[in-house]
Structures are given as C-alpha cells and as structure tokens.
Amino acid sequence: MYGLQLQSQPFFNLRKTLQLQSQPSSLPFISTCSTSVSNPTFRALSSIQEFPPNAVRRKSDPQWRGGFSLGVDLGLSRTGLALSKGFSVRPLTVLKLRGQKLELQLLEIAENEEADEFIIGLPKSWDGKETPQSNKVRSIAGRLAVRAAERGWRVYLQDEHGTSTEASDRMINLGIGKSARQKSSDAYAAVILLERYFAMSGKDIEIVLPKQMDLQEKLRRGSTPDIDFYPEEFVG
C-alpha cells in the first residue's frame, strides 16, 4: 500500500500565475515572466488553453467530466496526500519518503487513482512572501513535473499558508483524537489545499513546466481519456 492509510476514507520551473476574470464565462488569464515575446498577451491566453488546470475546466464547462486531482502537502519528513474525484475531496495517505522514492511513489499513486494533475502546496508567510522551504518545494515540483509530463500529467503550485492550522481545527471538530490527528494531519492539510484550489477556481496557482518542448507537447495532448468518463471515444 501507499504508506499510512487513513481510516476516514534536468528541469525548468516556469512560474506562471493564473488570474481569472470576474465573469465566469471569460477566458482565464495566465501571466508570463518572459520579456522576449513580441505579443505576451497572446502567448498567455494560448498557454492557459494549452495547460488548463481541472479547476478552470470545471468552472468554464459545467458539463466537463473527469480530471482527478492529487493534493500534495510536502514536509521535511512526511508528505500528506488528498484526492479530489468530482466534487468530493478526501484525505488519502501520508508518506514517509524523500527524494526519488517519494517522486516515484507520487507517480504510482496518481496512476492508481487516475489523477492527471498534482496540486502541490507552496509554503508562504502570512504576507504572501516565500519562505526558505519554498525553494525546496519548487525543486521537488520541478523534478516531478518532468516525470509527470511524460505521462501527460500537469504539476501546479498553490499557496498553502494556513492549511495546517485549518486542518487541525477540522480534525478537532470531527472528533478525531490527538494520536490520530498527529498521524493524519498532513493528509488533512492536503485536503484543505485542494478545497482552496477548487474554491478559488485555480486563481493564483502556478504551473510548473519542463523545459523540454517534447514534454510540453505531451502536456498539450494530455493523458489518455478515462473510458468511464468518455466511453464515446473508445467506440470503434
């Protein structure tokens, strides 16, 4: 199995921020830090169309199906995971792995759970500034993005400030004992992370893109559609 199961149920980090327009039907905007593009606005609009997160797809198309999301709360020694299928978010597991073993396990879990995107918590301070831990998270996210892109899966960064406190409060409200809270707090923090991501419809997240153009092309094509959600695509 993945690890602690909960009973309750070379790379380039391209920093791009999603900013949704006020109207639900308007096209989301993704900013770019590049100054060498002659028409950055056109490129920004093209990019969000090419690599849209599931939260944006859900908001722009009420009939959209599929697209499971894996929330990842990275810690120094423990990594909490949560899973979103449809409109439900649940704690999944806590991993006690680091380095390449962690990255490979994340990919295996995503495949088993049919997730096509990772929402990774980015540590920030109360005023929105990044912390010393932020660079470590970005480094892991960058390596994971390369492996994920090979499968057509996307990696995004979401501000995780306050998720641990919210997770602790929720577990207390649910009546979860102290011992159980200590074991599952990271997974519940990942739940809060995913709920925030969907509540904000993907606003202010960052996509992590591999530098290799062939991998970016795989991201544009995406992963193979799930027959449970798109049976018509598998009909001869």
Automatic annotation (TrEMBL):
Gene3D superfamilies: YqgF/RNase H-like domain. One of its GO terms (biological process) is rRNA 5'-end processing. It comes from the Eukaryota. CDD domains: YqgF (cd16964). Keywords: Cytoplasm, Hydrolase, Nuclease, Ribosome biogenesis. One of its GO terms (molecular function) is hydrolase activity. Residues 67-167 form the YqgF/RNase H-like domain. The keyword Nucleotide-binding does not apply. Coiled coil: none annotated. NCBIfam families: RNAse_H_YqgF. This is Resolvase, holliday junction-type, YqgF-like protein. It comes from Corchorus olitorius. The lineage of its organism: Eukaryota, Viridiplantae, Streptophyta, Embryophyta, Tracheophyta.
